[in-house]
Amino acid sequence: MRASLEELEKEREELQKRANELRKKRDELHKKAKELAEERDELNARIRELRVKIKEHKTKRDELNKRVKSAKERRSQLNRAYRRARKKLRELERRKLADLGVNIDRLKRELRRLEHEQMTQPMSPQREKEVIERISKLHAQIREYEQRIASDVRLKKAFEEMRMIKEKAEKQHAEVEELAEKAQREHEEMVKLIKECDAISRKVDEIQEKIVFTKIDADNLHKEFIECVDRIHELDRQISVMKRTEKGKEKLQKEAMEIFERFKRGEKLSTEDILLLQKAGLI
Fold first, then answer.
1. CA 171, CA 106: separation in Å to the nearest integer?
2. Which residue of 40, 98, 250, 279 is surrounded by the most CB atoms within 10 Å?
3. What CATH number labels 5-252?
4. Among 42, 65, 17, CA closest to 186
5. Helix (H) or strand (E) holding 237
6. How far apart are CA 259 and CA 80, in angstroms?
7. Is the predicted pLDDT of residue 1 greater than 50, yes or no?
8. Are 61 and 190 in contact (CB under 8 A)?
C-alpha cells in the first residue's frame, strides 16, 4: 500500500533526527582521532629527540672506549717497562751484595725470626739478652749494607728509572679508570634513553591502533549517515511530487466546481469544460 504524505513526512523527520545523531557521533570520533594523532605526533617527535641523544651518547661512548683501549695498551707497555726496570734493579742489587759477600735476604729472615721469638716465646734473661744483642747487630748490619747499596751510582740510577716508570704506570692506570668510568656513564645513559624510547614507541603503537579503530567506527557512522541523507533526499522528492499532485487536484476541483456552477445556471459549456467535469467526477 502506498504511504501517505503524512507517513512520508514522519519518516523523513525520524531520519533527519537519526542523521543528526550520526553526524554528531562521527564528528566526535573525527575529533578524537585528531587528538590521538596529535598525541602520537608529539610522542614521535620525542622519539626523534631521544634517538639523536642516543646517537650522541653512543658516539661519545665509542670514542671513550677507543681511548680506553689505547690507554690500556700504553699502561701495559709501562707495566712491562716497570717489570724490566725492577728486574734490572734486583740484578744490580744481587751483584752488589755478592761483591760485598753478604746475603741480605738471609739476614732479614733471621731478624724476623728472632723478633718473632722475642715476642712470642718465654726465655731466660740470658737468652733474652743474647736475642736482643743479635737483633741490634742485625739491624746495624742490614742498615749498613742498605746504605752501601743506596750509595751505588748505578743502583741509584736504576732505582730512579724504576720509580719514574712506576709513577707513569700509576698515572696511566688512573687515566684508564677515569676513561672507563666516563665510557660506562655514557653507556648507562644511552641504555636509559633506549628504554625510554622503547616505552614511548610501544605507547605510539597503542595510540596508532586506537586511531585506526576510531577511524573505522567513524567511517561506518559516516556510511550510515550518507544512507540516511540519500533516503531523506528520496523522501523529499516523493513528498514534493505528492504535494504538487495534491495541489493539482485542488486546482482541478476548484475549476470543475466553477464550471459546474455555470452548468447549473444553464450556461453553455465547451467540450473542454465537459471533459474537465468528467475528470473531476462531477458528471
1. 35
2. 40
3. 1.10.287
4. 65
5. helix 153-264
6. 135
7. no
8. yes
Q: C-alpha cell of 212?
A: 585506526
Give the confidence band of 76 by pLDDT, cuts at 50, 70, 90: very high
Question: For 111-115, 143-147, 190-194, 220-224, which range has the lowest pLDDT when averaged over its residues?
Answer: 143-147
Distance set, CA 249 to CA 93, 255, 264, 272 (Å): 140, 10, 22, 17
What is the residue whose three cell numbers read 519518516? 11
CA–CA separation, 241 vs 278, rounded Å? 24
CA distances from 134 to 101, 111, 122, 226 (A): 20, 8, 17, 117
Residue with cell 665509542: 62
Q: Please, are residues 200 and 47 in contact by the beta-carbon 8 Å criterion? A: yes
C-alpha cell at 238: 516523493
pTM as predicted: 0.61
**What cell was used for 200?**
614511548
Provide the residue count of the chain.
283
CB atoms within 10 A of CB 225: 20
Helices (H), 101-152: 104-120, 125-150
pLDDT single digits (tens) 111-147 = 888 888 888 888 888 888 888 888 888 888 778 777 7
Distance of alpha carbon 137 from alpha carbon 122, whole angstroms? 21
Determine contact, residues 85/158, Cβ cutoff 8 Å.
yes
Q: For residue 189, give the amino acid letter.
A: E
